[in-house]
Amino acid sequence: MLAVRLSRLVNCTPAFKPLTSLINLQPDLFHSLKKQVHPHVSSKRVSSAVSSVSLSNVGSASLIGRRKTNEDRFKICQPAVNILYLAVFDGHGGREAADFCEARMEQHIKGFARQTQNLEVVLTKAFTEVDKELAERSPSCQSGTTATVALLRDNTELVVASAGDSRALLCREGKGLQLTSDHTPERKEERERIESRGGFVVPNSCGDLYVNGRLAMTRSIGDFHLREFGVIPEPEIKRILLSHEHDSFLALITDGISVIMKSQETCSIITQSQDPHQAAHRVCEQALAHGSEDNVTIIIAPLGAWGKSMKSE
User: Fold this and answer.
1) What are the contacts of 205-210 at 24+ separation with CB within 8 A?
2) Which of 45, 87, 118, 201 could form a disulfide with 185 if both were Cys (CB 3.0 to 4.6 A apart)?
3) Low pLDDT (below 50) residues in the chain
4) Are 257 and 168 in contact (CB under 8 A)?
5) CA 304 remoteness from chain centre
């Protein structure tokens, strides 16, 4: 994680509208998936033979790596009978923001889920409200965090929200598909927003771009001193209907893994593992062996096609 030390807090939390989009797949897969997606479609209509995702089968690991402290946080729980909640938070400038998201994000999701069935709306509101609550409760907070949260409803409807550069991966027919896009100044639309708000983007000694020379991402929870310069907590949302015949697992990872390992390498390590618990530790250990100097965290939720890729090899 490219961390920064923050200097002051600005209590400024604008309101935003949800962003929704589809994942980029190969053309044949994309068009097949697109036909299934509708903002309010019931996942029960998709398939009568759906695998059940159990909390006990979800694997996870979080290693400190070469850092002095571990600022990564994650959570796995079941906020409703038919909803599975998975989340990773990669803190920077301290662990307060990540700790707060770990403790409070689920509660906001529960609250908004009682008001609407639209999970895109639920997640967008939860992100902005957690950010607002952090500012109100901890005026001296000097940290920020990424947030990548996945809600799986009725074992089929998957909605992923992300702010920052932690990622969500879906393994479909043995291929690692990135469901999220990193929020960095290298993205044209992200940089334009920063500059339109009076911020600026400059490279560090390694050539990595930073907002106002301080932050390597353009969206986060916390980082209030950069809020007026266009760093926002609003997530990007992606929603798909899973195919348990073709989908092996969903993985959420922090950038201690993603900066050092490509999606397909991560996918291959997981599919060659006996179970998600072993797979999570193998991915983290491999990232550190490759030279990652950051904290490394992963959550792996097995889906219906778990084990098929390994059996076919």
Assistant:
1) 208/2, 209/184, 209/185, 210/2, 210/4, 210/185
2) 201
3) 1-50, 311-313
4) no
5) 21
Quote the CA–CA distance of 200 and 198 in Å, as a whole number.
7
- CA count, 13 A, side-chain hemisphere, 51: 18
CA of 229: how far to CAs of 52, 79, 172, in Å?
44, 35, 38
Distance CA(2)–CA(206), nearest Å, equals 11
pLDDT in tens, 185-201: 999 999 999 999 999 99
Q: Per the confidence metrics, is the pTM higher than 0.90?
A: no
**Sign of the alpha-carbon dihedral angle for 38, 169, 258, 83:** positive
91, 67, 184: which is closest to 145 by C-alpha? 91
Dump the DSSP string for 137-154. H-TT---EE-EEEEEEET
Q: Which pLDDT belongs to residue 38?
A: 35
Q: 98 near 141, Cβ under 8 Å?
A: no
Contact 250, 172 (CB under 8 A): no
* Ramachandran class of 198: left when φ > 0, alpha when ψ lies in -120 to 50, beta otherwise: left
